[in-house]
Specification:
254 residues; 8-stranded parallel beta barrel
Length: 254
């Protein structure tokens, strides 16, 4: 698919790629524009834009608060789709939507997928939609050239990884640890063995997220993964220092 091909081509030129995350509408769409511009200017290879949901079960307190504040400010799915179209037309990197299935179900599966395709979105991450429940939706996404990105976890057996790989497209998201986003992950032999299992299970690029926070974390993934995912850290940075701090932080990761 387009997303997989783009990432593999970019990977030929870099030791590891960077994927970043932000919550749409938090603290505002205007600030989102500033943040994305700084991310792209400082070498980010892929951006995951979260459509806010009131109960984001995979997310820790930082992203949870951002979701709830964005919803309270009036952010809508339609506004997120339009913002995604604007960003995909403005920058030559892949843009993804991340959200939860309730959002898509209420909006309408085909309606959402058609709008995402029209916006130039190349992938979707939906943490609470396993293939047993979402196979039809994943097929519809694939038919539109949109990658349904699935998640490996440290608790995934080799058999389960094989099942997920059958449905996966674009890349596989490897959660660095059990639990939710935000808490720093600790790397060690058990973690490296887990990534080796992930690598054996799929030929797709591997993205590692949940607790990746600094240059040392990113460097530790070189040779073991293809993308390092930075999420809560940038949101916290914007809260504490303002959006202008994002560019220097992204530049420091390499």
């Amino acid at each position: 698919m387009q997303l997989e091909e783009t990432l593999k081509k970019r990977r030929q030129e870099k030791d590891i790629l960077l994927m970043t995350h932000l919550v749409l509408g938090y603290p505002s769409f205007e600030v989102n524009r500033t943040i994305i511009r700084q991310m792209v200017d400082n070498g980010v290879d892929c951006i995951e834009m979260q459509i806010p949901f009131s109960e984001p079960m995979a997310d820790g307190p930082v992203i949870l608060k951002a979701n709830q504040d964005s919803i309270a400010a009036g952010t809508t799915v339609a506004a997120c789709l339009e913002f995604g179209r604007e960003m995909a037309a403005s920058y030559d990197i892949p843009f993804l939507f991340m959200t939860y299935y309730n959002i898509i179900f209420k909006y309408g599966e085909e309606r959402f997928l058609d709008a995402a395709k029209a916006a130039g979105i190349t992938g979707l991450i939906i943490p609470d939609l396993p293939p047993e429940m979402g196979g039809e939706f994943m097929t519809m996404a694939r038919d539109r050239g949109i990658a349904a990105i699935l998640i490996f976890a440290p608790t995934s057996t080799d058999e389960r990884m094989g099942e997920l790989n059958h449905w996966a497209a674009g890349f596989v998201y490897c959660a660095a640890r059990r639990g939710v986003t935000g808490k720093k992950s600790e790397f060690g032999s058990e973690f490296y063995d887990y990534l080796a299992r992930c690598r054996r299970a799929t030929s797709l690029p591997l993205a590692v997220g949940f607790g990746i926070q600094n240059r040392e974390d990113v460097a530790d993934l070189i040779g073991r993964a293809d993308l390092a995912v930075i999420g809560s850290r940038t949101i916290r940075l914007v809260d504490e220092e303002g959006p202008e701090a994002v560019g220097p932080f992204i530049a420091s990761l390499r």
